[in-house]
Amino acid sequence: MSRRCLRLSLRAGETLPSNLCWRVEQGYVWLARWCPGADPLTLGVWGPGELVMPALIGLTGLELRSLSAVVVEEEEPTSAMEREFLEEQLRQAAILLLLSRVRPAESRLLQLLDWFGTRFGTMTSQGVVLRFGEKTLTHQQLADIAGMTRVTVTKALTQFRQSGVIAGQEGGALLLRVSASELWEYS
Asked: Is the pLDDT at 114 greater than 90, yes or no?
C-alpha cells in the first residue's frame, strides 16, 4: 500500500510542519529559527518548484512559515534530493550570513531585494520585477527576514521609491531598477 502525501493550501503567515519534506507548488515559504527575546534568524526562502526539508538542518526551534498564499505537497525525498537540498541550503545560509553583516541596514535591505530578484524575479527592460504571490511582502516580513525593524524597512523603502531605485507595479509587484553591480554604491 502506498503512503498518501499531504497537500496543504495556506494563507500568508501560517506555519507548516517542519518535520516533513515539502515541495512548494505555489507561493513562497520562509524558514526561521525563533529565539526568545531575539529577532528571528532567517535560514532560507523557497519558491515554486523548490524542495524544503527543515529536519535535515538539524536545529530545534525551526518554524516554516508561508510568506504568501501557498500550496505545498509532501515529498518522499531520495538521497540525491536530500544532498541537493543541503547544497542549496549551504549556499543560502552563506548568502544570508553575508547579508546579515551589511551595514547600513538600508544597504542590507536593497541587497536582500536584489537576491530575491535573482532567485524569484522576472527581468524586464526596466529592471527586475518581484512578485510574491498576489502582493509583495509586507514591511514586517521584510524586516523579519532581513533582521531589521519594520520602521527601518518602511523608511528605507520610502527612500528607495523617492530616489527611483524601486517602483510599485500593477498587482502589488515591486520593480527593482538597480542592477546588482550598482548595489554596492549604496553600501
From this structure: yes
